[in-house]
Amino acid sequence: DTAVSQTPKYLVTQMGNDKSIKCEQNLGHDTMYWYKQDSKKFLKIMFSYNNKELIINETVPNRFSPKSPDKAHLNLHINSLELGDSAVYFCASSQEAANYGYTFGSGTRLTVV
Amino acid sequence: KQEVTQIPAALSVPEGENLVLNCSFTDSAIYNLQWFRQDPGKGLTSLLLIQSSQREQTSGRLNASLDKSSGRSTLYIAASQPGDSATYLCAVRRGTGNQFYFGTGTSLTVIP
To answer: Which residue has the higher pLDDT, A58 or A69?
Structure first.
């Protein structure tokens, strides 16, 4: 009955590979997000997406792309992985209505070697 | 652009002490503010959510206050326990996409 689930929990891959991280929420929320947590533990928004609009943080390389097959899923695809992509990636969901808070997934630790 | 700062960056206290964590934000036009806890190697657990119209929220030993006009929030932890050791993050919600902007976090260690 996990509210926001991410898979895999850990991902180790070589430079240049393409990988995907999956996220699913069963809360009925209409907006999902991807955040990146760097080595200093700072959380930075990458994407926010609902069925109307994708908002991309301008600092995110275009090697990263969100894919949403339906309202309950927002997957993250990463092409041509680089060493600097190593981080923990968190998925979150909320309602677009401003009085809602976030629910986070448990994170995916990506290590690029 | 919204900037969120948390002070102190790290805090170590003996068990049983009451403590206060601080969060400040530069743009007071927020919808709400949320406090999270993150244990090492884990995800974020929501502790308290305060709407912009509220002054405080309480849950057990935790009390969060919000002073929107001055751009400040505090998280008060009463009678701290070793199990409270974690990183505490505040996040404010506003703006396009209704995204949350996160603070830099306070790493708390409660010594038995």
So the answer is: A69
